[in-house]
Amino acid sequence: ILGTLLLSENALEFNADAKRLLKSPGGHVIPRLGTQYVTLIESDRLDLITSARKWRGLDFRNFNQLKDTASLLFTKELGCRLCSLEPKNITERLAIVEVDFAEDKAGELPQRKILRARALRDGTIHAAVFS
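Now predict its structure.
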């Protein structure tokens, strides 16, 4: 999982406090709306730096079964930018959550959503990129 998260760092919780403590009557919340997207990508370079391989006659490839595929990873932790990994989109950008910062409250957004997507090309999905 790579990218930027719309609701990271308790955005809705802090937004509720800010509206209560800082917003004047008749004031507006800016930005009002936000949409979190995800794109499934293939990147041979990402696979190369995040997968175990053979080394000096030792085969470490079975360790790939233990790879953490659910944690958020920032490319700066890998010492690179996403564009340098030459990503190829497997899907279009998919909207996964829409937020109204003026109305929505923490805990009220759906915790789960099933999406259907058509693959744009054959390939291996190496990451879900959030934007």
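The first strand starts at residue 2 and ends at 3.
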